[in-house]
Amino acid sequence: MSIKVGHIKIGEGQTKVCVPIVGETYEEIGELTSKVRDCGCDIIEWRADWFEDYRNIDHILQVLEMMRERIIDMPLIFTMRTMGEGGKADLTYEEYEEILLDVARSGLADMIDVECFIDERVSELNEKLKEEGAIVVGSYHDFEKTDSTEELKERMRKIVGKNSDIVKIAVMPNTKDDVVNLLNATFDMTKETDKPLITMSMGKLGALSRISGNIFGSSVTFGNYVTASAPGQIGVIKLEDILKTI
Known about the structure:
Blueprint: E1 3-5, E2 8-10, E3 16-21, H1 26-37, E4 43-47, H2 57-71, E5 76-79, H3 93-106, E6 111-115, H4 122-131, E7 135-142, H5 149-161, E8 166-171, H6 176-189, E9 197-201, H7 207-211, H8 213-216, E10 220-224, E11 234-235, H9 236-245
Parallel strand pairs: 3-4, 3-10, 4-5, 5-6, 6-7, 7-8, 8-9, 10-11
Antiparallel strand pairs: 1-2
Helix pairs in contact: 1-2, 3-4, 5-6
């Protein structure tokens, strides 16, 4: 099943390219937004945890309003990545939940990334976000290792079970077998769920996973424009060229 977001359908056709914006100030984020808007990507992600004032919801909404004015109807993911999953945000669960709900109520972001293993109450949070009209990207990130194929599949099943619309998992490979585990888990899960999957094996070793979505079933890949938000991201121009040839 594909999910329509703006003018694109995630889970249908060519793998979509998402570029994260990781500026620290309002001005820097604005400058990056204008540049990324015209780079040819399909989706923009705002990594709000990089923002110098990420705890202040009023300032977050001001940034989102500015971004929306510049990108018009381009699909936008709001992500507040916590320190527990490799991000910069040091928040209690209650603070995290409040920010995500306020963003959903604003209607400024099409999709909201939710760390599905941050707290047992995530299923309820995801349901509330969906009631506000947001598309929930249920996510999990491991910057140290890659589990077995079966463990990765079980992790994705749990994300599906937590009221997520889209399933995202990113893991760090230490061997070539780890990359194969991630690709196998992705392919197997396309037969189990109709929800769009976003999977990646990080670092240079995992680069194959970022360009093989059409083959194994990952609907979105992440490329960098200026600054990478995760290890192994390929430059967006190069990434788009590669995807066109596969």
